[in-house]
Amino acid sequence: MRLAGIDLNLLTSLDALLAEQNVTRAAKRLGVSQPAVSHSLRRLRDLLGDPLLVRGKTGMVATPRALELRAAVRAALEAAEVVLRAAPAFDAATAERTFVVSMADQQSFLLLAPLVERLAREAPGLRIDVRPTIGDAIPHDIELAIGVFAETPANVHDEPLWREDFVCVLRKGSAAARGTLDRKRYLALSHLLVAPRGTPGGRVDDLLARGGERRTVAVRVPHFLVAPHVVAATDLVWTAPEGIARVFVEYLPLVLREPPLRIDGFTVSMRWHARVDRDPGLAWLRGALREIAPR
Fold first, then answer.
1. Do 141 and 285 sit in the same domain of this protein?
2. Is a pLDDT exceeding 90 seen at residue 90?
3. Residue 12 belongs to a domain
4. 223: which DSSP letter?
């Protein structure tokens, strides 16, 4: 039997008829007319090849086939109700769940501490599983990605979290940190480059190349959190995102200088697949991230 050609509303009529064993009472139960239920009964008899209800001495009597179907029909309708039931409201205070989020160490450094503090205060049953970033796409096991993205694939939602500009980070007391950091001095220095994806070059190098210039990158590392410690112990200059740089200036011997060239900043965004757009738990998490993101 092909379900595609069957009116599944007949199941609700059959359930009422088997429960009431009376067409008039079944119609009242369903909130429809008696002729409508009689019509449904005729269709059910044709479909199932059984009279289902027959006249007895005191009214309609269910056939053995009808009695056999009763439990299965009720179970089918209960299963349909589960499928069609609205998703329960998300209560962060009582929810038990692990969110799988991808982000680089720069974003983790700025977001994780305030996020975990908020979870401990408002949502003790929620946990965060942080995975490394792997480009613009969102793997199936990642529920939310936070980072700097070049392109937006199909069926993906993006939302900006905060804007980052660049500053130059130097060791306090170094020769490079004294006086004005002009373009000539900047190009004469040895540089540290953070390359999260392990590829050479970056925004600064692309900008310099357009003017026929280049800098000397003496050290290239994949992690943002390594860079300030290296700069604090050397005479290297690091052209860094301002947000993370200002944190390290508070407790390492570092100073910040304006870059001597116009470097476009970048936007840190959160990204999620369309298939989880209506997930109430992820909607709560995105709202929390909006509130704790750097301003």
1. yes
2. no
3. yes
4. -
